[in-house]
Design brief:
PONY_dom; mainly alpha; disordered N terminus; ligase; about 220 residues; two-stranded antiparallel ribbon
Length: about 220
């Protein structure tokens, strides 16, 4: 009983600390008491050492479950940092750096963390009210996610990411929906496991543009 009471006290203290940090960065506390807008979000990310043009921004956005790019909500903020035991900006900075290091490792936990960040990026990358990500935004996100600080999508003889983006810009020229976004990740991982593409099956349920890309590569 004493132990449970102690844990509850710690949790209450941590929540209080996190709510205080959240309140510090609010853009309009009276109008939106449970939301931080772009100005406050960018200030917060800067204070915890996030590179606004790198994968650490996508990592931090996934941790707090940002509903859109440059925004945070109180519930996601408190739950996300509580799960990592980070109740100060110093701990948040350390936790974000640790997650980035984890993602860069080829371990199962690193791959799982990368997949979570990748999938959440689609949610924050959409324009308000849209169901897809513009091709220009998608390519920018792919260059970060599949770049050196993420999971590089390139093999010994094939610059997969460059070819993929070039192909889409020349032949697809459409926005990227959720299915194509998620299937691109699956396709990329399979390419990294076997660049020969011998595993390819035309009967599999890949998006049509992926089928066309494989034909282009071959």
């Amino acid at each position: 009983f004493y132990s449970n009471g102690q844990n509850t006290a710690h949790a209450t203290t941590r929540d209080s600390s996190l709510n205080q940090i959240f309140d510090k960065y609010q853009d309009a506390p009276k109008e939106s008491p449970n939301k931080i807008g772009p100005t406050g979000t960018m200030k917060f990310f800067g204070d915890i050492g996030v590179d606004l043009e790198g994968i650490s921004m996508l990592i931090a956005s996934e941790i707090v479950q940002s509903p859109s790019m440059g925004e945070m909500e109180r519930e996601g903020f408190v739950k996300g940092w509580t799960a990592l035991g980070a109740d100060t900006t110093a701990k948040m900075k350390a936790a974000t750096a640790a997650r980035q290091k984890e993602i860069a490792s080829p371990t199962p936990t690193g791959q799982d963390a990368f997949k979570r960040v990748y999938r959440h990026t689609f949610a924050v990358g959409r324009e308000p009210g849209q169901k897809a990500v513009s091709l220009s935004s998608a390519t920018e996100f792919w260059r970060v996610l599949f770049g050196p600080s993420g999971t590089p999508w390139a093999s010994a003889t094939t610059p997969w990411l460059d070819w993929w983006i070039d192909f889409l810009e020349q032949h697809h020229r459409k926005s990227v929906n959720k299915d194509l976004w998620n299937q691109t990740l699956n396709f990329a991982l399979k390419c990294l496991a076997d660049e020969s593409v011998d595993w390819w099956d035309e009967e599999s349920a890949w998006p049509g543009v992926v089928d066309e890309f494989v034909e282009f590569v071959k």
